[in-house]
What does this fold into?
Amino acid sequence: MRDLRCFVILSPLVLLLTACPPPGGDDGGFTTFTSTGTTGTTDDDVGTLDTETGDTVGTTDTGNENCGDGVVDAGEECDMGAGNGADKACTPECTINVCGDGYQLPAEECDDGNSDNTDDCVTGCKLASCGDGFTQAGVEMCDDGNDVNDDDC
It folds into this structure.
C-alpha cells in the first residue's frame, strides 16, 4: 500500500519535470518582442507610446509603412495601432499629438498647425478673443491683453 501511495504522489511530479524544457532551451516556438517605448492605454486605445521624445512637429507623412501596427518603430514617436487618430494621443502619422500640430485634441479650443497669433487660433490652442494680448489681423486695431476700455487700447 505504501508503494502505491508513493507512486501516485511521485508520478505527477516526474511528468511535470520532464515536460519543462531546460533553461535556455526550446521555447516551444514562441517569439518574444520588446519595445523601446512604454506600453500605455487611454480609454479604448491600445499599443505603445514612446514618452522619451523632445519637441514634436506635425508632419503629413512619416514614410514609415509600419505606422499603425501598434509597435513603435524607428522614425515613430508613438504607435497606438487602431487607436491612432487626429483627436487621439498619437496622430495618424505616429507622432505625439501636441498643441500646434494641426490636430485638435478634445482639450484644445483650436489647432491650426501654426504659430501665427494674428489669426483665429493663438498660442496654447485657444480661440482668439479681445483682451488675449494678440492683435487679430483685420479684426482688431490693438490688443493690450486686458479688458480695460479707458486705456490707450
Observations:
- The first helix runs from residue 2 to 19.
- DSSP finds one helix and five strands in the chain.
- The two ends are 104 Å apart (CA to CA).
